[in-house]
Amino acid sequence: MGKEIVLASVNAKAALYAATADEFSAIAPNIHLGMLAAYLRALGLPVRVIDCEPEGVTMEQLADIISKDVPILFGVICTGANPSSSTMTMAGLVRFFRDIWKETPGTQTFIWGPHPTVLPELTLQQTGVDFIVRGEGFETIPRLFNSLTTGSEDLASVPGLAYFENGVFQQTVEPPLLNDMNELPHIDFEVMKPSGYRAHNWHCFGDMSNRSPYMIIWTSFGCPFSCSFCCVNNLFFGKRVQRFRKIELAVEEIATLYEKYGVRNFRIFDELFVVRQDRIDEFCDRLEAKGYPDLNMWCYAREDTVSENILNRLKKVGMNWISYGFETANPEVMIALKKGNGGNTDNVIRMTKDAGMNICADVMFGAPGEGMDAMKRTYDFLVHYNFEWGNMYPFFAYPGTQYFNPANPPKSWDIYSLYGYECIPAGTEYLTPAQVLKFRDDSFINYHSRPEYLKMIELKFGTDTRTHIERMTAIPLRRRIVEES
């Protein structure tokens, strides 16, 4: 038995992504896993990292590793590259702890992530782990480790814990959010090797054979906006605040990854990167000074946070893609979702295209109040602008939002698997979940199969990219609720 902490992700991609699990999907670094490990190591704690998907470690192999090594603390990270992926990841975690994991005497288990933070008791019941680590984990995990190894304090005094004691659910006080983002050390890229990760296919249109190496970097945590459908702030106990890291630290990471590991494809992890002019200016100034001519980056922005100057500056340093959450083409639905009314959309799209940037358009079908005509308006919006990529989601009622009913949770978290056979979106008062999901799937195929879209793609990115898209759209997704409807 070793007095160490093992932090791991669980590889459930084949089940969650179905036919898209191979070349058409990304292999994203689990940035939270890397950040937690780096922070714990900086405190002098012994930590081993197992990022199972890029390392090719199956659930069975992960269980065998832990049973042989017997670490004193084994933590599974319940998240991915997006906040909403935490609930989708839960499907794999429940399967792992229910069907594969064998209790290992001497090893205590925990799950960390946004989903278990807001549903700690249910997560304990569904998985049987010893603890839920709620919140960011930076204070909780070291104190839990010390409690288990030295008995220096009672579990009840460790903030951010949830557990059962004699069959009674216990939850300690919320830990404070990390005050200074600059305290977080750089991720160890010798452990999380960029060569093991692969960018999204659309991110590398025009250069499809060079999606790896790939890395995600970050400059902030959280989001100050109050969109009612979004679960981004679950990890922060719902606090609507954005905390910033020094831009110079993020650019240092880009420099290390570019010069030492040959990374050219980057995603900015921030849920809202384009939010302050001064930070964008500094980011661009520092990258211009580095003189990297072939960066290929993408980031998130809102319609009300960009300007012509910002877009031109970002494009100049290699920000080739912007992902906008357009959500819906129905202003009344946007207002109900607390996202604004999208009144500046046409101008923002024009400015972005004029800057030479590609747009990843994020939309949802089947938001509360929407019927078939409303969904068609959103699809027509995509067609009208002929975006380089359309990210289309059915509306999900995520835990931590007002649309989720904790008194009646789903029997399986597989229903949140966007590409999975068991996917079941929320539905509306006018549409069944099956109708919403079928519309979403048909829209995705139809949009990316249109002659005018494929012609634009071929002219802009070449025949290889067009062929890739044609092969992708030839693979139908199987859906239980659609087949049974």
Account of the 3D structure:
With 485 residues, the chain is of the alpha/beta class. Helix content is 38%, strand content 16%. The strands form three sheets. A seven-stranded mixed sheet has the order 2-1-3-4-5-6-7, sandwiched between helices. The protein is globular. The chain starts with a strand and ends with a helix. The model has no long low-confidence stretch (mean pLDDT 94).
Could you give the topology of this structure?
Layout lengths: L1 E7 L4 H5 L13 H12 L4 E4 L1 H4 L3 H11 L1 E7 L7 H16 L7 E5 L1 H5 L1 H8 L3 E3 L6 H11 L10 E5 L2 E4 L42 E4 L2 E2 L21 E2 L2 H15 L3 E4 L8 H14 L5 E6 L6 H9 L2 E9 L3 H6 L8 H10 L3 E8 L6 H14 L3 E6 L38 H17 L1 H11 L1 H11 L6 H5 L1
Parallel strand pairs: 1-2, 1-3, 3-4, 4-5, 8-11, 11-12, 12-13, 13-14, 14-15
Antiparallel strand pairs: 5-6, 6-7, 9-10
Helix pairs in contact: 9-10, 10-11, 14-15, 16-17
| Average pLDDT | 94
User: Looking across the biggest beta sheet, what order are the strands in?
Assistant: 2-1-3-4-5-6-7
- Report the C-alpha radius of gyration, rounded: 22 Å
Continuous helix count: 18
Distance between the termini: 52 Å
Brief account:
With 485 residues, the protein is of the alpha/beta class. Helix content is 38%, strand content 16%.
Keywords:
single chain; about 475 residues; alpha/beta; 7-stranded mixed beta sheet; 6-stranded parallel beta sheet; 18 helices; about 40% helix
